[in-house]
Amino acid sequence: MPSRSSPPEIGEDTSLKHHRHINSYHLLPPLLAGTITITIILLTLLTIFIYRKLSRNRTAPSDSPSHRQCHRFSYSLIRRATSSFSASNRLGHGGFGSVYKGSLPSLPQQLAIKVMKSADSLHGEREFHNELSLSRALVSPHIVPLLGFSSDSGKRRFVLVYELMENGSVQDALLDKKCEELMSWSRRYRVLCDVAKGLEYLHHFCNPPVIHGDIKPSNILLDGEFKAKIGDFGLARLKTEVLIEGLEEDDILKKKDENGSILEETESGLTGFEEGASSTVADRSPEASPGLSPEKGVLYLKGCLIKRVAREEIGGGTKIMEVGLNP
């Protein structure tokens, strides 16, 4: 007689299911904690990525037509362009860092490569981004053109690449070397007019206006034809209706430049020279300058720069503050 299979033991099956349920219950908290941890890590990484992308976009050159084409170079390429920052290629140095002469196959011009000092990394980086964001937006024959830049925040390397001005600064050419080409008053006068036109562009054709804030002979550069261009926008600011962006009202007082000249600041934040030069070039009508001689076409400039440029022998008893437009 065939044997019957014994029915499954109900108690044993129930015990097994209960055991599995307990194991699943113990695994749930670590699985949940792991999922939450991974989610937090992914969100953190995503936030960092977006922040860095936005930061790069704020400082990277814009493709807008109003901006000059500005190249981004690798630091290794900059190093080769200056022969590893050779002392023989160094054009000058100061509190901002050093400037080197260089050349790149992709650019036809000789270059002035400004390597920002990284000892005070926070200040140096802030000044670099300030100068980059302003200079790349300026397009004028009276402003030194910015051609490119190189930046590496991790290694604190910040470089600005400008077109080389062959005849250096007014400080070097006129006041230090006594360059023969600048000994005539007519040539010096043209230099002053170039500076005034540059300031007119910054104050009246930029929106919002740009306040250079550091006009002095060492920041006026001369190209191969001794045409003057304004350079070094590390201290420049955008002018708002009330204050200069980034400065408190109490800070708009006085600055003393490295040559010992006092640059008075007006309530608008303009230096005395900047205010006088730009306003008179913008409007040379008799109504704008009632105390000047309109028939002589007088350009009225005030401040330390014109005094320094005109203090040499100019002959003929010419007055510093009143010179004909066709000397």
Automatic annotation (TrEMBL):
Stretch list, region Disordered: 264-292
Transmembrane segments: 31-51
Entry annotated with the keyword Transmembrane: yes
Gene Ontology molecular functions: ATP binding; protein serine/threonine kinase activity
Catalytic activity annotation: L-seryl-[protein] + ATP = O-phospho-L-seryl-[protein] + ADP + H(+); L-threonyl-[protein] + ATP = O-phospho-L-threonyl-[protein] + ADP + H(+)
PANTHER family: OS03G0251700 PROTEIN, OS07G0586332 PROTEIN
Similarity remark: Belongs to the protein kinase superfamily.
Name of the protein in its database record: non-specific serine/threonine protein kinase
Organism: Hibiscus syriacus (Rose of Sharon)
